[in-house]
Amino acid sequence: MITINEGSVTIEVPDFSKVSSRAPVFYNPVMEFNRDVSVLAVQAFQRILDREISVADTFSGSGIRAIRYLVEVDGVSEAAANDINPLAVKCIEHNSELNSVSPLVSREDAAIFLRGNPGRFDVIDVDPFGTPAPFMDSAAASARNRSLLAVTATDTSGLCGTYIKPCLRKYSARPLKTEYCHETGLRILAGFTAMNLARYSKGASFLLSHSSQHYMRIYAHVRRGARRADETLKNIGYILHCFSCLHHEDVRGVPEDRKCPLCGAKMDAAGPLWLGDLHDEKFIGSMMAEAKNKSLNKSEDVLKLLKTCIGEVGMPPGFYDVHEICSKLGVSAPPLMDVMGGLGEAGFRVSRTHIRPTGIKTDAGVREIEEIIMDLHGSRS
Predict the structure, then answer these.
(1) Could you identify which of 124, 176, 298, 333 might form a hypothetical disulfide with 270, taking C-beta atoms 3.0 to 4.6 angstroms apart as the criterion?
(2) Residue numbers belonging to the annotated binding site for S-adenosyl-L-methionine
(3) Could you count the other beta carbons within 10 Å of the beta carbon of residue 18?
(4) Domain-by-domain residue ranges, the chain?
Protein backbone atom coordinates (compact mmCIF):
# COMPACT_ATOMS: atom_id res chain seq x y z
CA MET A 1 0.00 0.00 0.00
CA ILE A 2 1.11 3.58 -0.63
CA THR A 3 -0.02 6.62 1.35
CA ILE A 4 -1.38 9.69 -0.44
CA ASN A 5 -2.04 13.13 1.04
CA GLU A 6 -4.48 15.23 -0.96
CA GLY A 7 -6.36 18.29 0.20
CA SER A 8 -7.23 17.67 3.85
CA VAL A 9 -7.39 13.87 3.61
CA THR A 10 -5.00 10.94 3.70
CA ILE A 11 -5.72 7.68 1.92
CA GLU A 12 -3.98 4.38 1.20
CA VAL A 13 -4.18 2.55 -2.11
CA PRO A 14 -2.52 -0.56 -3.52
CA ASP A 15 0.85 0.20 -5.11
CA PHE A 16 0.60 0.46 -8.88
CA SER A 17 3.18 1.07 -11.58
CA LYS A 18 0.87 2.61 -14.18
CA VAL A 19 -2.46 4.42 -14.04
CA SER A 20 -4.97 2.27 -15.93
CA SER A 21 -8.37 0.65 -15.57
CA ARG A 22 -6.51 -2.58 -14.76
CA ALA A 23 -5.04 -1.20 -11.53
CA PRO A 24 -6.27 -3.14 -8.44
CA VAL A 25 -8.05 0.01 -7.26
CA PHE A 26 -8.25 3.01 -9.53
CA TYR A 27 -6.53 6.18 -8.33
CA ASN A 28 -5.12 8.83 -10.67
CA PRO A 29 -2.80 11.38 -9.02
CA VAL A 30 -3.02 13.64 -12.09
CA MET A 31 -6.72 14.16 -11.34
CA GLU A 32 -5.98 15.96 -8.07
CA PHE A 33 -6.50 19.24 -9.95
CA ASN A 34 -9.91 17.97 -11.10
CA ARG A 35 -10.85 17.07 -7.54
CA ASP A 36 -9.63 20.44 -6.20
CA VAL A 37 -11.89 22.24 -8.67
CA SER A 38 -14.73 19.87 -7.76
CA VAL A 39 -14.42 20.64 -4.05
CA LEU A 40 -14.79 24.36 -4.77
CA ALA A 41 -17.69 23.79 -7.18
CA VAL A 42 -19.64 21.61 -4.74
CA GLN A 43 -19.01 24.12 -1.94
CA ALA A 44 -20.19 27.02 -4.11
CA PHE A 45 -23.29 25.03 -5.06
CA GLN A 46 -24.00 24.23 -1.41
CA ARG A 47 -23.89 27.96 -0.68
CA ILE A 48 -26.51 28.51 -3.40
CA LEU A 49 -28.87 25.92 -1.91
CA ASP A 50 -28.03 27.17 1.60
CA ARG A 51 -28.76 23.84 3.30
CA GLU A 52 -27.23 20.44 3.88
CA ILE A 53 -26.69 18.49 0.66
CA SER A 54 -26.18 14.90 -0.47
CA VAL A 55 -23.54 13.92 -3.02
CA ALA A 56 -23.09 10.80 -5.17
CA ASP A 57 -19.65 9.70 -6.38
CA THR A 58 -20.66 7.08 -8.96
CA PHE A 59 -17.14 5.84 -9.87
CA SER A 60 -15.46 6.09 -6.50
CA GLY A 61 -12.31 3.95 -6.94
CA SER A 62 -10.22 4.63 -3.84
CA GLY A 63 -13.04 6.74 -2.41
CA ILE A 64 -10.95 9.90 -2.31
CA ARG A 65 -13.49 12.15 -4.06
CA ALA A 66 -16.41 11.21 -1.81
CA ILE A 67 -14.17 11.41 1.28
CA ARG A 68 -12.91 14.84 0.29
CA TYR A 69 -16.49 16.05 -0.17
CA LEU A 70 -17.34 14.89 3.36
CA VAL A 71 -14.18 16.30 4.94
CA GLU A 72 -13.64 19.53 3.00
CA VAL A 73 -17.07 20.78 1.92
CA ASP A 74 -19.24 22.44 4.56
CA GLY A 75 -22.83 21.23 4.61
CA VAL A 76 -22.39 17.79 3.02
CA SER A 77 -24.52 15.56 5.23
CA GLU A 78 -24.39 12.48 3.01
CA ALA A 79 -22.00 11.17 0.38
CA ALA A 80 -22.45 7.92 -1.52
CA ALA A 81 -19.32 6.14 -2.76
CA ASN A 82 -20.13 3.58 -5.44
CA ASP A 83 -17.83 1.27 -7.37
CA ILE A 84 -18.41 -2.08 -9.04
CA ASN A 85 -14.93 -3.34 -8.10
CA PRO A 86 -15.04 -5.36 -4.82
CA LEU A 87 -11.44 -4.38 -3.99
CA ALA A 88 -12.40 -0.74 -4.42
CA VAL A 89 -15.26 -1.17 -1.97
CA LYS A 90 -12.83 -2.52 0.64
CA CYS A 91 -10.45 0.35 -0.10
CA ILE A 92 -13.24 2.92 0.29
CA GLU A 93 -14.22 1.44 3.65
CA HIS A 94 -10.59 1.43 4.83
CA ASN A 95 -9.94 5.02 3.71
CA SER A 96 -13.19 6.19 5.26
CA GLU A 97 -12.01 4.85 8.62
CA LEU A 98 -8.66 6.60 8.17
CA ASN A 99 -10.47 9.93 7.77
CA SER A 100 -13.22 9.30 10.34
CA VAL A 101 -16.09 9.64 7.86
CA SER A 102 -18.90 7.29 6.90
CA PRO A 103 -19.99 7.51 3.26
CA LEU A 104 -22.73 5.23 1.99
CA VAL A 105 -20.65 2.56 0.27
CA SER A 106 -22.21 0.47 -2.50
CA ARG A 107 -21.02 -1.96 -5.13
CA GLU A 108 -23.11 -1.61 -8.27
CA ASP A 109 -22.83 -0.73 -11.93
CA ALA A 110 -23.01 3.07 -12.06
CA ALA A 111 -26.10 3.12 -14.27
CA ILE A 112 -27.95 0.72 -11.97
CA PHE A 113 -26.86 2.71 -8.93
CA LEU A 114 -28.24 5.91 -10.42
CA ARG A 115 -31.49 4.28 -11.57
CA GLY A 116 -31.97 2.91 -8.07
CA ASN A 117 -31.65 6.35 -6.47
CA PRO A 118 -33.88 8.70 -8.49
CA GLY A 119 -34.04 12.25 -7.15
CA ARG A 120 -31.99 11.40 -4.07
CA PHE A 121 -28.84 13.48 -4.57
CA ASP A 122 -28.18 17.21 -4.83
CA VAL A 123 -24.90 16.52 -6.63
CA ILE A 124 -24.20 13.64 -9.01
CA ASP A 125 -20.57 13.19 -10.01
CA VAL A 126 -19.92 11.03 -13.07
CA ASP A 127 -16.17 10.58 -13.47
CA PRO A 128 -15.46 7.27 -15.27
CA PHE A 129 -12.29 5.92 -16.87
CA GLY A 130 -13.08 6.87 -20.50
CA THR A 131 -16.41 8.05 -21.83
CA PRO A 132 -19.39 8.95 -19.63
CA ALA A 133 -21.79 8.41 -22.54
CA PRO A 134 -23.24 5.01 -21.45
CA PHE A 135 -24.20 6.46 -18.06
CA MET A 136 -25.67 9.81 -19.06
CA ASP A 137 -29.22 8.59 -19.62
CA SER A 138 -29.31 7.16 -16.10
CA ALA A 139 -27.72 10.32 -14.67
CA ALA A 140 -30.29 12.49 -16.46
CA ALA A 141 -33.16 10.32 -15.24
CA SER A 142 -31.88 10.37 -11.65
CA ALA A 143 -31.04 14.10 -11.40
CA ARG A 144 -33.39 15.97 -9.11
CA ASN A 145 -34.68 19.51 -9.53
CA ARG A 146 -32.11 22.21 -8.68
CA SER A 147 -29.25 19.72 -8.63
CA LEU A 148 -25.67 19.78 -9.90
CA LEU A 149 -24.52 17.24 -12.48
CA ALA A 150 -20.73 17.06 -12.81
CA VAL A 151 -19.38 15.03 -15.73
CA THR A 152 -15.85 14.09 -16.80
CA ALA A 153 -14.82 12.67 -20.18
CA THR A 154 -11.31 11.35 -20.82
CA ASP A 155 -11.97 10.13 -24.37
CA THR A 156 -10.70 13.43 -25.75
CA SER A 157 -9.28 11.96 -28.97
CA GLY A 158 -12.81 11.31 -30.16
CA LEU A 159 -14.35 14.53 -28.85
CA CYS A 160 -11.54 16.58 -30.44
CA GLY A 161 -11.84 14.99 -33.88
CA THR A 162 -8.78 12.74 -34.05
CA TYR A 163 -11.17 9.80 -34.31
CA ILE A 164 -14.53 10.81 -35.76
CA LYS A 165 -16.45 7.52 -35.67
CA PRO A 166 -16.16 6.98 -31.89
CA CYS A 167 -17.56 10.47 -31.26
CA LEU A 168 -20.47 9.83 -33.60
CA ARG A 169 -21.09 6.47 -31.97
CA LYS A 170 -20.92 7.68 -28.35
CA TYR A 171 -22.20 11.28 -28.51
CA SER A 172 -24.21 11.31 -31.76
CA ALA A 173 -22.16 14.34 -32.82
CA ARG A 174 -19.47 15.06 -35.38
CA PRO A 175 -16.23 16.67 -34.09
CA LEU A 176 -13.74 18.75 -36.07
CA LYS A 177 -9.96 18.81 -35.75
CA THR A 178 -9.44 22.59 -35.56
CA GLU A 179 -7.28 24.86 -33.39
CA TYR A 180 -10.24 25.14 -30.98
CA CYS A 181 -11.11 21.41 -31.09
CA HIS A 182 -10.95 21.07 -27.30
CA GLU A 183 -13.64 23.72 -26.93
CA THR A 184 -15.68 21.94 -29.60
CA GLY A 185 -15.29 18.73 -27.58
CA LEU A 186 -16.47 20.49 -24.44
CA ARG A 187 -19.49 21.80 -26.33
CA ILE A 188 -20.29 18.34 -27.70
CA LEU A 189 -20.16 16.94 -24.15
CA ALA A 190 -22.33 19.80 -22.85
CA GLY A 191 -24.81 19.43 -25.71
CA PHE A 192 -25.01 15.67 -25.19
CA THR A 193 -25.68 16.23 -21.48
CA ALA A 194 -28.36 18.86 -22.18
CA MET A 195 -30.13 16.65 -24.72
CA ASN A 196 -30.16 13.70 -22.31
CA LEU A 197 -31.69 15.89 -19.62
CA ALA A 198 -34.26 17.31 -22.04
CA ARG A 199 -35.50 13.78 -22.70
CA TYR A 200 -36.72 13.79 -19.10
CA SER A 201 -38.15 17.33 -19.29
CA LYS A 202 -35.19 18.87 -17.51
CA GLY A 203 -33.28 21.99 -18.50
CA ALA A 204 -29.59 22.73 -18.03
CA SER A 205 -27.32 25.72 -17.62
CA PHE A 206 -23.57 25.37 -17.31
CA LEU A 207 -21.79 26.83 -14.30
CA LEU A 208 -18.24 25.87 -15.29
CA SER A 209 -16.65 23.84 -18.09
CA HIS A 210 -12.97 23.23 -18.69
CA SER A 211 -10.58 21.19 -20.80
CA SER A 212 -7.48 20.37 -18.74
CA GLN A 213 -4.66 17.87 -19.20
CA HIS A 214 -6.20 14.69 -20.67
CA TYR A 215 -9.88 15.27 -19.84
CA MET A 216 -12.93 17.52 -20.16
CA ARG A 217 -15.20 18.47 -17.27
CA ILE A 218 -18.61 20.17 -17.12
CA TYR A 219 -20.86 21.29 -14.25
CA ALA A 220 -24.54 21.50 -15.22
CA HIS A 221 -27.25 23.10 -13.08
CA VAL A 222 -30.36 20.97 -13.59
CA ARG A 223 -33.87 22.43 -13.42
CA ARG A 224 -37.04 20.42 -13.96
CA GLY A 225 -39.76 21.44 -16.42
CA ALA A 226 -40.66 20.95 -20.07
CA ARG A 227 -40.46 24.69 -20.73
CA ARG A 228 -36.95 24.85 -19.28
CA ALA A 229 -35.97 21.85 -21.41
CA ASP A 230 -37.32 23.56 -24.52
CA GLU A 231 -35.39 26.74 -23.72
CA THR A 232 -32.25 24.69 -23.18
CA LEU A 233 -32.55 23.05 -26.60
CA LYS A 234 -32.51 26.49 -28.25
CA ASN A 235 -28.79 26.49 -27.45
CA ILE A 236 -28.13 23.37 -29.51
CA GLY A 237 -26.61 23.92 -32.94
CA TYR A 238 -23.46 23.62 -35.03
CA ILE A 239 -20.12 25.34 -35.54
CA LEU A 240 -19.15 25.85 -39.20
CA HIS A 241 -15.42 26.04 -39.94
CA CYS A 242 -13.56 27.03 -43.10
CA PHE A 243 -10.21 25.27 -43.32
CA SER A 244 -9.24 27.53 -46.21
CA CYS A 245 -9.34 30.95 -44.50
CA LEU A 246 -9.96 29.94 -40.82
CA HIS A 247 -13.34 31.73 -40.64
CA HIS A 248 -15.82 30.08 -38.30
CA GLU A 249 -19.39 30.79 -37.27
CA ASP A 250 -22.15 29.14 -35.24
CA VAL A 251 -25.75 28.41 -36.23
CA ARG A 252 -28.72 27.38 -34.13
CA GLY A 253 -30.53 24.39 -35.56
CA VAL A 254 -29.38 22.53 -38.67
CA PRO A 255 -27.07 24.50 -41.03
CA GLU A 256 -28.43 25.02 -44.54
CA ASP A 257 -25.69 26.99 -46.30
CA ARG A 258 -22.13 25.78 -45.78
CA LYS A 259 -20.47 28.21 -48.18
CA CYS A 260 -17.84 30.40 -46.52
CA PRO A 261 -18.94 34.07 -46.73
CA LEU A 262 -15.31 35.22 -46.92
CA CYS A 263 -13.60 32.93 -49.44
CA GLY A 264 -16.41 30.84 -50.94
CA ALA A 265 -14.98 27.49 -49.85
CA LYS A 266 -17.23 24.80 -48.41
CA MET A 267 -17.26 24.85 -44.61
CA ASP A 268 -17.21 21.74 -42.42
CA ALA A 269 -19.73 21.37 -39.59
CA ALA A 270 -19.22 20.20 -36.01
CA GLY A 271 -22.19 19.18 -33.90
CA PRO A 272 -24.83 19.06 -32.70
CA LEU A 273 -23.31 20.82 -29.72
CA TRP A 274 -23.92 23.46 -27.05
CA LEU A 275 -23.68 27.07 -28.29
CA GLY A 276 -24.63 28.85 -25.08
CA ASP A 277 -22.35 29.96 -22.26
CA LEU A 278 -20.11 27.30 -20.74
CA HIS A 279 -19.53 29.31 -17.54
CA ASP A 280 -21.43 31.38 -14.99
CA GLU A 281 -19.49 34.42 -13.76
CA LYS A 282 -21.19 34.66 -10.36
CA PHE A 283 -20.72 30.95 -9.65
CA ILE A 284 -17.03 31.01 -10.59
CA GLY A 285 -16.55 34.11 -8.45
CA SER A 286 -18.03 32.21 -5.52
CA MET A 287 -15.61 29.33 -6.18
CA MET A 288 -12.67 31.74 -6.13
CA ALA A 289 -13.84 33.17 -2.81
CA GLU A 290 -14.15 29.65 -1.35
CA ALA A 291 -10.57 28.84 -2.38
CA LYS A 292 -9.30 31.09 0.43
CA ASN A 293 -10.88 28.76 2.98
CA LYS A 294 -9.65 25.45 1.52
CA SER A 295 -6.35 23.60 1.76
CA LEU A 296 -5.68 22.81 -1.90
CA ASN A 297 -2.31 21.67 -3.20
CA LYS A 298 -3.19 23.00 -6.65
CA SER A 299 -4.82 26.26 -5.54
CA GLU A 300 -2.61 28.51 -7.69
CA ASP A 301 -3.39 26.54 -10.85
CA VAL A 302 -7.07 26.32 -9.96
CA LEU A 303 -7.38 30.09 -9.46
CA LYS A 304 -5.58 30.70 -12.76
CA LEU A 305 -8.11 28.49 -14.55
CA LEU A 306 -11.10 30.12 -12.87
CA LYS A 307 -9.89 33.65 -13.62
CA THR A 308 -9.46 32.83 -17.31
CA CYS A 309 -12.87 31.14 -17.49
CA ILE A 310 -14.55 34.28 -16.12
CA GLY A 311 -13.04 36.19 -19.05
CA GLU A 312 -14.67 33.73 -21.46
CA VAL A 313 -18.21 34.42 -20.18
CA GLY A 314 -20.42 35.91 -22.89
CA MET A 315 -17.89 35.36 -25.68
CA PRO A 316 -18.82 33.62 -28.96
CA PRO A 317 -18.16 29.89 -29.39
CA GLY A 318 -14.72 28.97 -30.67
CA PHE A 319 -11.56 31.05 -30.72
CA TYR A 320 -8.74 32.08 -33.03
CA ASP A 321 -5.13 31.02 -32.61
CA VAL A 322 -2.94 34.03 -33.39
CA HIS A 323 -0.04 31.78 -34.42
CA GLU A 324 -2.27 29.86 -36.85
CA ILE A 325 -3.41 33.11 -38.47
CA CYS A 326 0.15 34.43 -38.70
CA SER A 327 1.23 31.17 -40.31
CA LYS A 328 -1.46 31.65 -42.98
CA LEU A 329 -0.30 35.24 -43.50
CA GLY A 330 3.36 34.23 -43.63
CA VAL A 331 4.40 36.65 -40.87
CA SER A 332 5.82 36.24 -37.38
CA ALA A 333 3.37 36.39 -34.49
CA PRO A 334 3.29 39.71 -32.57
CA PRO A 335 2.77 39.65 -28.79
CA LEU A 336 -0.67 38.32 -27.96
CA MET A 337 -1.49 41.28 -25.71
CA ASP A 338 -0.74 43.68 -28.58
CA VAL A 339 -3.25 41.87 -30.79
CA MET A 340 -5.82 41.90 -28.02
CA GLY A 341 -5.16 45.59 -27.37
CA GLY A 342 -5.64 46.41 -31.05
CA LEU A 343 -8.95 44.54 -31.15
CA GLY A 344 -10.12 46.34 -28.01
CA GLU A 345 -9.22 49.73 -29.45
CA ALA A 346 -11.18 48.82 -32.60
CA GLY A 347 -14.28 48.25 -30.49
CA PHE A 348 -14.29 44.46 -30.34
CA ARG A 349 -14.69 42.29 -27.27
CA VAL A 350 -11.69 40.05 -26.66
CA SER A 351 -10.41 37.67 -23.99
CA ARG A 352 -7.92 34.86 -23.43
CA THR A 353 -9.02 31.22 -23.46
CA HIS A 354 -8.05 28.63 -20.87
CA ILE A 355 -7.68 26.02 -23.60
CA ARG A 356 -4.72 27.40 -25.57
CA PRO A 357 -2.18 30.07 -24.53
CA THR A 358 -2.01 31.51 -28.06
CA GLY A 359 -5.78 31.61 -28.51
CA ILE A 360 -8.14 34.59 -28.23
CA LYS A 361 -11.93 34.67 -28.01
CA THR A 362 -13.47 37.66 -29.74
CA ASP A 363 -16.50 38.88 -31.64
CA ALA A 364 -14.18 40.09 -34.38
CA GLY A 365 -13.85 38.03 -37.54
CA VAL A 366 -10.65 36.54 -38.93
CA ARG A 367 -10.26 39.41 -41.43
CA GLU A 368 -10.32 42.02 -38.65
CA ILE A 369 -7.72 40.03 -36.71
CA GLU A 370 -5.54 39.81 -39.81
CA GLU A 371 -5.75 43.61 -40.24
CA ILE A 372 -4.67 44.18 -36.64
CA ILE A 373 -1.74 41.79 -37.07
CA MET A 374 -0.59 43.44 -40.29
CA ASP A 375 -0.97 46.91 -38.74
CA LEU A 376 1.24 45.82 -35.87
CA HIS A 377 3.86 44.60 -38.32
CA GLY A 378 3.60 47.86 -40.27
CA SER A 379 4.13 49.96 -37.15
CA ARG A 380 7.34 48.08 -36.42
CA SER A 381 8.86 48.38 -39.88
Answers:
(1) 176
(2) 35, 65, 83, 109-110
(3) 6
(4) 2-312, 320-380
Measured in whole angstroms, the distance separating CA 57 from the mean position of its chain's CA atoms is 17
Q: What's the mean pLDDT in 36-48?
A: 98
Phi-psi region of 80 (alpha: psi -120 to 50; beta: other; left: phi over 0): beta
Would you say domain 320-380 falls under CATH 3.30.56.70? yes
Class in CATH terms, 2-312: alpha beta
Half-sphere exposure of residue 101: CA atoms within 13 angstroms, side-chain side: 28
Name the 3-class secondary structure at 134: helix
296 Ramachandran zone, left/alpha/beta (phi>0; psi -120 to 50): beta
Annotation: binding site for Zn(2+): 242, 245, 260, 263
**Sign of the four-CA dihedral 274, 305, 52, 103:** positive
pLDDT in tens, 109-164: 999 999 999 999 999 999 998 999 999 999 999 999 999 999 999 999 999 999 99
DSSP 200: T
Q: Which segments are annotated as binding site?
A: 35, 65, 83, 109-110, 242, 245, 260, 263
Three-class DSSP category at 273: strand
pLDDT tens-place string over residues 238-276 = 999 999 999 999 999 888 878 999 999 999 999 999 999
* pLDDT for res 1: 83
For 300, how many CA atoms within 13 A lie in the half-sphere containing its CB?
A: 0
